């Protein structure tokens, strides 16, 4: 097994007033040649957007873009006519493909919105752009791995053009479980949303990221009540 640790306080940080963002990987003005990506996981941004503000319409292509709200309500719009409100418990995916322009804004004029913005390199280029979102009940991840994303529209969760599986887990203190990787050659990136956990013997705290590869199984134990996001992705 090989591993890489990204402590929360080692992330890039940009505070634009209306946007307070932490970058696990190089993004915008933050460039670290040792933190360009983990496998096909290119971007993991931990964003806080002030009330009434947001990202205006801007283009993307050939990227799988996932948004996971953690607090508040995010408002999505794009030039394909899609519009939606995304709340905690929801997962949104947008396949940029041949090209799409979208906006992400705080739906509230007064309360901040907190969300994760995640980009994956796709396994197919120039696909037709598409948008989807689903809601996942919190009870479905209590002391278990709740699948929220996969490579197949026939599997649980939203789907992407990539051999990737995302799971969320809300674990009680002391709960232990092994995550079994679904595809040989994939790696796992564990992101601690809240709490503390020990993953493959490595102690992790809130907003730490930990990548593992060349393994088939990963031992996870919650040291406190803990919320995790697990991202299994190809290590291309």
Automatic annotation (TrEMBL):
Positions bound to Fe cation: 58, 60, 102, 104
Residue spans crossing the bilayer: none
Keyword Iron attributed: yes
One Pfam family hit: Pirin_C_2
Keywords: Iron, Metal-binding
InterPro entries: Pirin, Pirin_N_dom, Quercetinase_C, RmlC-like_jellyroll, RmlC_Cupin_sf
Gene Ontology MF: a single term: metal ion binding
Co-factor binding comment: Binds 1 Fe cation per subunit.
UniProt domain Quercetin 2,3-dioxygenase C-terminal cupin: residue ranges: 148-233
Gene3D superfamilies: Jelly Rolls
Required cofactor names: Fe cation
CDD domains according to UniProt: cupin_Yhhw_N
Annotated Pirin N-terminal domain residues: 11-120
Entry's family note: Belongs to the pirin family.
Name assigned to this protein: Pirin N-terminal domain-containing protein
Source species: Hymenobacter psychrophilus
Biological classification of the source: Bacteria, Pseudomonadati, Bacteroidota, Cytophagia, Cytophagales
């Amino acid at each position: 097994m090989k591993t890489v640790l990204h402590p929360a306080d080692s992330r890039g940080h940009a505070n634009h007033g209306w946007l307070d963002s932490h970058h696990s990987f190089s993004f915008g003005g933050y460039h670290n040649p040792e933190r360009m990506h983990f496998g096909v996981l290119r971007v993991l941004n931990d964003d806080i957007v002030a009330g009434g503000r947001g990202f205006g319409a801007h283009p993307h292509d050939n990227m799988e873009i996932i948004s996971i709200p953690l607090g508040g309500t995010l408002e999505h719009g794009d030039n394909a006519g899609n519009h939606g409100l995304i709340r905690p418990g929801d997962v949104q995916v947008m396949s940029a493909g041949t090209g799409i322009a979208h906006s992400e804004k705080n739906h509230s004029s007064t309360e901040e919105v907190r969300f994760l913005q995640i980009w994956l390199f796709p396994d197919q280029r120039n696909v037709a752009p598409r948008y989807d979102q689903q809601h996942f009940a919190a009870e479905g991840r209590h002391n278990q791995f709740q699948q929220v994303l996969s490579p197949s529209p026939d599997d649980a969760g939203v789907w992407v053009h990539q051999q990737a599986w995302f799971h969320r887990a809300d674990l009680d203190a002391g709960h232990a479980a092994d995550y079994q990787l679904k595809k040989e050659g994939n790696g796992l990136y564990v992101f601690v949303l809240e709490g503390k956990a020990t993953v493959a013997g490595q102690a992790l705290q809130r907003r730490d990221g930990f990548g593992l590869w060349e393994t088939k199984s990963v031992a996870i134990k919650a040291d406190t009540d803990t919320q995790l996001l697990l991202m299994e992705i190809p290590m291309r």
